[in-house]
Amino acid sequence: MRKEEEILLEDVHAKILSYLDNPQIKPIETVENIKKDFNIKLGSSSDFNHIRTSVDKYLQYSTKTSSSNFFNQLYGGFSITGHIGEMLSSITNNSMYTYEMSPVSTLMEIELVEKMSSLVGYENGGGIFVPGGSNGNLLAMLAARQKKAPETMKKGLFKTPELTLFVSKDSHYSMVKSAIQLGIGMDNVMKVDTDSEGKMLVSDLERLIKKSIGKKQKPFFVGATSGSTVRGSFDSLNDISKICEKYNLWLHVDGSWGGSALLSKTHRNLLEGAEKSDSLSWCAHKAMAQPLICT
Ligand SMILES: Cc1ncc(COP(=O)(O)O)c(C=O)c1O
Q1: Counting atoms of ligand 1 from 1, which one is nearest the CA of 135?
Q2: Which of 76, 134, 168, 252 has its C-alpha lying 20 to 30 A from 223's C-alpha?
Q3: How high is the mean pLDDT in each 10-residue block of the chain (295 residues)?
Q4: Residue 69 counted as domain residue
Q5: Residues 29 and 109 in one domain
Q6: Which residues are 255's β-sheet partners?
Q7: How far is CA 237 from CA 112, 198, 222, 227, 291, in A?
Q8: From atom 4 of ligand 1, which residue's Cα is the shortest distance away?
Q9: pLDDT at residue 243, rounded to an integer
Q10: What integer pLDDT is reported at residue 67 of this predicted model?
Q11: Are residues 133 and 268 in the same domain?
């Protein structure tokens, strides 16, 4: 590396450290003023002073999610180990498509999946890191569709009765989005009522499953939520798993933000019954304060 590049890197890291120490959370400037002050037009990548100014302006006008006073989305905090991991993955720039390409990160993925599976209570659980909770829910729904309607792998949805799935009305919008992406359609997402705490009403779940069977549809998937986005409620996984067993449905747990309760001796009971599910999504970039995206 050239000397000037080394100095630039050191300068940028110093800027990052002082950004972390600055208590300001939200930029107070309007978009118009930011545009006036920060020239974001593409410049020369060899103009190191322009890069220094751009880094300053970028940090000055960014919302600081690492502050303990940041309460907007479901994530926050700064993790020194997460930051080191981000730097390593960027510097090594490996891809996860083969072991040969990324031996260490492949082994790390296996280790983490084993650890997280054992916390859920799965025996010989498998898994994969994906770009976000929405993507985890999509992948779970795809796995459920392959398992419960395997003919879809060859024939698409053309030779299958209308597939239906069930989520609470407080579930994350990615469930509906996934149904659209998989060709199941938003009209086939049955929204189950919730109780006064925002938990899925299991009696309403069974009512909707029976109604769907009565219409000659094919129920295949129930998406329970462990930590709902707005109210933070946890569905009763034991009760829901009994219904899934009775009607032979795939049970997915969207633990995107509440999954981290599995790490707490005091709160892990909120996910009691998770080990009976077929799949679970869990975002370390939410309640575990790891950098985006880590699911
Ligand atoms: C319950 C739940 N599921 C899924 C998601 C989607 O996660 P991501 O933004 O990582 O795709 C969220 C995000 O807020 C969520 O709260």
Answers
A1: 11
A2: 76
A3: 94 94 83 90 86 94 87 84 94 91 94 97 96 97 97 94 98 98 97 98 98 98 97 97 98 97 97 98 93 92
A4: yes
A5: no
A6: 282
A7: 23, 14, 11, 12, 29
A8: 133
A9: 98
A10: 86
A11: yes
Structural domain for 23, as ranges? 3-91
Q: How far is the CA of 256 from the centre of ligand 1 (A)?
A: 6
Sign of CA dihedral 133, 138, 142, 145: positive
Residue type, 51: I
* Residue among 80, 108, 73 at smallest CA distance from 94: 108
183 CA to centre of ligand 1 in angstroms: 21
Is 18 within the bounds of a domain? Answer: yes
- How far apart (Å, rounded) are the C-alpha atoms in residues 98 and 78? 30
**Residue 176, both tokens:** 């509906």
Q: Total structural domains in the chain?
A: 2
Assess if residue 287 is contained within a domain: no
Say if residue 248 is in the same domain as residue 124.
yes
Shared domain check, 248 and 107 = yes
Show which of 91, 114, 135 is a domain's final residue.
91
Are residue 112 and residue 85 in the same domain, yes or no?
Answer: no
For residue 189, the one-letter residue type is V
Any domain includes 76: yes
Alpha carbons 122 and 114: distance in angstroms, whole number:
9
